[in-house]
Amino acid sequence: MTVLLYAVERIKNCINELEAISKSEFPYADSREALNQLKRLFEDQLTELQQFDEKSNPAVVRQSCTISLDLIVKYLPLLGFILRSTNVRNGFEVCRPLLRLSKTLLEANATTSISTHLILSSEWDFSPFTYAKVPALPGFVLIGFPATESANPLILPLSGHEIGHSLWIVSNKTQKYQSILHDNIVNLLTQQIDRYNELFRATATPATITTDMFELESWAPAQFWVKKQVEETFCDFIGIRLFGTAYLYSFAYLIAPTWGSARPYRYPGQLTRVANMKAAATTYGVQIPENYDSYFEDLIPPRGTQTDLFLLEIADKALSAVVQEIVTDANADIEKANIPLPSSPNQQQILDRFHKVVPPENAESLADILNAAWLAAEDSTLWKGIPMKGTNRITILRDLVLKTIEILDINQTLKGDT
Amino acid sequence: MILRAERIAQLLKQGAAPDTSDPLVITPTPNIDELSKSGSASVDLRLGTWFVSLRPARIASLNIDEVTSEPKLTKCSYVPFGSSYYLHPGNFILGITLEWIRLPKTLAGYVVGKSSWGRRGLIIATATGVHPGFAGCLTLELSNVGEIPIELRPGIQVCQICLHSVEGKTTDDIDRSSYFGRRRPILGNILLDDFAKKLSTS
Fold first, then answer.
1. Which residue ranges of chain B lie beneath pLDDT 50?
2. Domain span at B149
3. Is A394 an 8 Å CB contact of chain B?
């Protein structure tokens, strides 16, 4: 077999697998639509490979084989993700209400016209995850919850963070923040030019730090890390603004107090992240759970060379300088979509019904349901007077919350909101 | 005494009020006006989105001496609104009501089929009692005893619940089954009591 035949065979196998997966029982059409779009992508690639013959330029053939392999490497994990969206461990009831929310937010803020789709799936990774920037699937929001938590509606507010990543892309935030972050980094480096020169064994000046290509390359990681940190911070704020206190609880549920790894450079330090979230919550008028700081410990300090740590310090400071702007920015995007803050009176009405083991019919939003759910989960007296056997209270609460979300979906559908 | 639909509608109205401490609730709530005027003695219930079927190839038989885990014995399916589940002749599955029911301590219920479905071969439930104080969706034991496949669609009215008042002193110590507070059908366990165990080992 030649390299070309290998490539053809690999692509055919992918198409066969796509066809097999598309026969699965998908809860909603978006997963199947994603598979159709991916299948077209692979079929186009196959057509291109099959047009080569003995007379074709070997370099062009090899290039096409490389592209085809790159496609497989990129998209194979996504096929697994889409397949897992059929798993009945998922709380399918949340799909349509979450799609409506995503659609409202993203389509109000997109710089170009988009049609929003949502795939909710599970990941064998204990961190909610989104596949952002999938060129073959424009308009798709792809959210994966940890497999062990994917039926737990109490962590659903974290989807706000993942929708934030999609919002970041469709509203072209990277471009918005690019120059301000660049300027912040340059200012910070200029202020510490001696330390920079010492660590990098350089002879930079405030003038050459932005003109000399070697200097630019030296501090480029700081700009990359702060961009990532700003994006993560923006996504946290979107989660808080969409889901209020419930976001803060679900964040703590998932990662408090800390985990055993060193701090990744692309995230702010854990305590900084919590402080920033509290600042955003205060601005938005979102109630912060009592003693919220005490839930968390900082991560193990980041590992790296002295120069890396110096640049991370610069990135951290550059983030800190724009936090308030991000708070305002996240709020503006959500206001543009006319999404209200969670409503305390509605949460209380929902909670009152939960106390009677009844899913309320008057829930106004997903956010209100999830906030009431967290109030119920945190209430140690919930259903104390009700003898229950064979199951525990939190399991019943999860089912009750998911049923409430299903009723919200039914009400929205009956009102004509498809 | 069995409750007339008009009385059920009255109780549902009362149950919707936030200050009712032990309400009768059926959610999504049926149309109260239509129910009041129906002249019947039951409330129609709809089919929910979750189904459980047995996996006959996985076990030799249902052994009552050991607890068989649900995943080994059953396959769970979700059928969204607008899609269908086809129940073929001779097949048996568990479904669930779309409605979440909450009975006060003073009421019990019985789930029965609807004649229009029964005449087409669909049997809805065989273990039909709903105890006072129950809350949750009701598991339906669906079987097609007819000769043609039946298309089931979430949201359709498939059964009805008759409600009865309960006599005797009401207490908080109500027997809550392991099916309490569920939104999906589950198989549950068959547990032998001491009486049956002693007879089995004699």
1. none
2. 41-61+68-103+111-201
3. no
